[in-house]
Amino acid sequence: MTGGYTLDAATVNAIAADLDSVKGSLSGQEATARVTPDAGASSTEVSQAYAGFATALGALSDSVGGVAQSVRDSVAAYQRSDDRSAGGFGGPR
User: Fold this and answer.
1) Ramachandran sector of residue 2 (left: φ over 0; alpha: ψ -120 to 50; beta: rest)
2) pLDDT tens readout for residues 4-44
3) Dist CA 23 CA 71 (whole Å)
């Protein structure tokens, strides 16, 4: 097809794997951020701030994981669509 495009599924799946790696790193940071530091009279406030930061890291980790899954789902949908259209126009690939 003139002017068409192709999708390199291996490259896009590698991107999803990189996103999974980022998700794992963020999850690890979330765990380390749940600390109760000795900040004297401000320990409660500092602990609450760390807890809020850890919660935000967890949410970001979940979002990145969702993006990785969406990337994989998109590749699969593209491949199904491409295979079906190829079959409809020119027979099996």
Assistant:
1) beta
2) 677 889 999 999 999 999 999 999 898 888 888 899 999 99
3) 14
Q: What single letter denotes the amino acid at residue 34? A: R
Q: Are 59 and 33 in contact (CB under 8 A)?
A: no
- Cβ pair 47, 36 in contact under 8 A: yes
- The Cα–Cα gap between 51 and 91 comes to 58
Dig out the tokens for 80 from the structure: 């199904």
Decide: residue 37, CB within 10 A, 0-12 exposed, 13-18 middle, 19+ buried: exposed
Asked if 61 and 44 touch (Cβ cutoff 8 Å), the reply is no
* Confidence band of 1 (pLDDT split at 50, 70, 90): very low
Residues listed for the chain? 93
